[in-house]
Description:
The structure holds two protein chains of two kinds. Chain A is mainly beta. Chain A is built from no helices and eleven strands. Chain A has strands at residues 3-5, 9-13, 18-25, 32-37, 44-49, 53-57, 60-65, 70-75, 84-91, 98-100, 104-109. Chain A is globular and about 40 Å long. Chain B is mainly beta. Chain B contains no helices and eleven strands. In chain B, strands 2, 4, 5, 6, 9, 10 and 11 form a seven-stranded mixed beta sheet that branches. In chain B, strands 1-3-8-7 form a four-stranded antiparallel beta sheet, with no helix packed on it. In chain B, strand 5 and strand 6 (54-57) form a beta hairpin. The relative contact order of chain B is 0.33. Classes of the chains: A mainly beta, B mainly beta.
Amino acid sequence: GQNIDQPTEMTATEGAIVQINCTYQTSGFNGLFWYQQHAGEAPTFLSYNVLDGLEEKGRFSSFLSRSKGYSYLLLKELQMKDSASYLCAVGGRYGNKLVFGAGTILRVKS
Amino acid sequence: DAEITQSPRHKITETGRQVTLACHQTWNHNNMFWYRQDLGHGLRLIHYSYGVQDTNKGEVSDGYSVSRSNTEDLPLTLESAASSQTSVYFCASSAYGVGSTDTQYFGPGTRLTVL
Lengths: 110, 115
């Protein structure tokens, strides 16, 4: 089976840096995705990691350690619009199917 | 621009009725997925399809069915709606074939209430 854990909620201040962690246990591994979901909207793709290391995209970076079953999403220079839920999802043995964590609600305060 | 749409966006129905939620994508993607999202559970996979005439059960498929008669559409049917099926339903699609990991793109969602 597959199990994905991420914190339920986090609060951070505008302009700060926040790290959202995700740990996973899967039967097979074909990549890890991060999605952003604003309240009442669809999830939108943020990042994809399949090899160990850091992937940077502007203010957002995502890190993966396959040996530890661990990933994090790093958000820099936080803005109020970053208040959203962040979903970690893992592609398992057969790739196409993703298993999602329950999501981390990030609240950015001024 | 290519897109993925869902209809209706909101639906209220009664227990025991059959309900069909539509999903249409113009990406020409092979893979299509249906999820439900409930507080505390995240996105859970209901059914998925890797191509025309292919359908597969996901984690929470009981009480739901799908059919894939063309590339663009994957309608989700609730055979006899139950209050436990009150949820937000998302359709998603991705490009590549079986065994490949690819980004899934989501539709706007359908909020279903079963009274």
